[in-house]
Design goal:
This protein has helices at residues 5-24, 32-53, 60-73, 77-90. With 101 residues, the protein is an all-alpha fold. The chain has two domains: 1-57; 62-90. Helix 1 packs antiparallel against helix 2 (32-53). The radius of gyration is 28 Å and the shape is elongated. It starts with a helix and ends in an 11-residue tail after the last helix.
Length: 101
């Protein structure tokens, strides 16, 4: 799925052009024109939303990563001090192997 801004703008232009064509041509049989226009309006709304949320120069992974960093930062420095203290006291990892006898 294209996620860069120029691709989304191109998609929006294509959808708008099809919507204009449906508006100016004769109606399709069995009310297909009405349903097509409804679907195109929904597609336009989705592309507008994607364009509004898309930040230039940031990938989806970068946005998600920044959210994770903010959540960890809320824990505060005392939390990380306690973690460090646990590491120094208990010296994690595997226990040493006992000599084979």
């Amino acid at each position: 799925m294209p996620s860069d801004r120029s691709s989304l703008q191109a998609l929006k232009r294509l959808i708008s052009e099809v919507d204009l064509l449906l508006e100016t041509t004769t109606p399709l049989p069995e009310n297909r024109t009405v349903r097509s226009r409804e679907l195109l309006r929904a597609a336009l709304a989705l592309t507008d939303d994607l364009l509004a949320t898309a930040k230039p120069g940031k990938s989806a992974a970068a946005i998600l990563g920044s959210k994770g960093g903010n959540a960890i930062a809320k824990r505060g420095s005392e939390y990380f001090r306690q973690l460090a203290a646990k590491r120094t006291k208990h010296a994690g990892g595997r226990p040493p192997k006992s000599p084979a006898e």
